[in-house]
Each structure stands twice: as structure tokens, then as C-alpha cells.
Amino acid sequence: MQLTQAHRDALNDVLQWRRDVRHFSTDPIPEDVLTRLRATMDLAPSVGNARPWRVLHVTTPALREKIISNFEKSNAEAAEIYDDDTRASYAGLKLAGLRDAPVHLAVFTENQPAEGRGLGRQTMPEMLCYSSVTAIYTLWLAARAENLGLGWVSILDPVAVAQTLSVPDHWQLTGYLCLGKAAFDTDTPLLHDKKWQENTPTQWQEV
Ligand SMILES: Cc1cc2nc3c(=O)[nH]c(=O)nc-3n(C[C@H](O)[C@H](O)[C@H](O)COP(=O)(O)O)c2cc1C
Hints:
By secondary structure, the chain is α+β, with helices and mostly antiparallel strands. The protein has helices at 5-17, 31-41, 61-79, 84-91, 127-145, 158-164, 190-193; strands at 53-58, 103-110, 149-153, 171-180.
């Protein structure tokens, strides 16, 4: 298939307007949209074609509450490394939309998959986790194309998340994701906008 300038323009729009979303409307995601999004993860690349991502859609209110408590504790602890002024700025950042997001997805990496038969991960076993990241980013872009936002929550105790969700020992938490309709659209990262960290260009050099 030959792609055209129209495809490139569309892809660029999706990339440009993809954001990490922390402000969500509570509107539910229609089931057919969620099904379409789920299918896009099958399109992601993975080491040895192992597809090691395992996704849990967390719908049980008590489990969601435990994840929220985990985030609140982890976030309070994370703030402690900063001096008083920086801690005040940190406290002003919204770093998760767990309460409002209609969909929570916990993405784990299966660290001992039969699939792929070990190909490509003998010297760098972390490639399994990187493969899960490709699936998450695929979902992220596909969600934006559906006019939905995704927020990646990493301020969590991953062992506690695994315990809360009763997953097998060899599943490692890679990303806890909030999904839903963004409360607003922007082409500027929130951390840049709030002056926590400005956008820096990709470092790329010839050697
Ligand atoms: C691996 C990863 C983990 C992240 N974890 C968090 C998080 O815990 N909380 C948060 O607010 N944003 C998190 N983010 C979002 C980043 O802050 C965001 O991608 C960055 O500021 C650039 O903004 P943009 O995604 O809107 O372009 C994470 C992003 C990535 C890729």
C-alpha cells in the first residue's frame, strides 16, 4: 500500500495533538470503540513477535479505589525529595486522572512468554517490557484518533498494584493507563504549560 500526503498529514495531526491526559470527562467509552482500540494493540511490534503485554481492564470499584490510594501514597512520598518551593510546584501538578477516567487499564509484561521462543531477548531481556511500551503507544495514538485521551500513571508502587490485581509472579507492571474523553484539547504538554519542564528537542547526532 502506498501512503499519500493525506496520510502523512493525518498522522502528523494525531502525533501533534496526542497528549498525556489527566483531566477527563466521566462519560463512558462506548463498547464498540473500546473493542476497536483493543484490536489496535495487536498491530504493535514486539521482540520475537512475543506480544508479551497482558491487559487488565479494572472495573471493580474496590480495586480502582485501591489503585487510587496507591497513587496518593506514592505521590506524597515522591514529593518528599524536593525542597519546599519545588514541592509546592509539584503539589500544584495534576499527575493522574484516576477518579474521573471511565476506563482503567493495567498493562503488565509477561516476563516468561512461550511466544517468540526467546528470539531477540537473550542479551537484553528488557526488550519484553519495551515491546509492551510499543503496544501502549499504539493504543495511545489510536485513542487520540478516536478523540479520546490516555494518561500514563507511573507514580505507583508496582508490587502493590500486582498484589491488588492478583496477577502471576512473572507479570511486571509496565503501565497503568487512564482512558476517556479529555476535558480539553491542547497541543502543549501540561508539564511544559505549567513550567515544570519545557519541551526540549530530540538529541540526534552523527558519529
Ligand atoms: C513512561 C511514562 C510514564 C509517565 N508517567 C506519568 C505519571 O505518572 N503522571 C503524569 O502526570 N504523567 C506521566 N507521563 C506523561 C508525561 O508527563 C508526558 O508524556 C510528558 O510530560 C509530555 O507530555 P505529552 O505526553 O502531553 O506530550 C508519563 C509518560 C510516560 C511516557
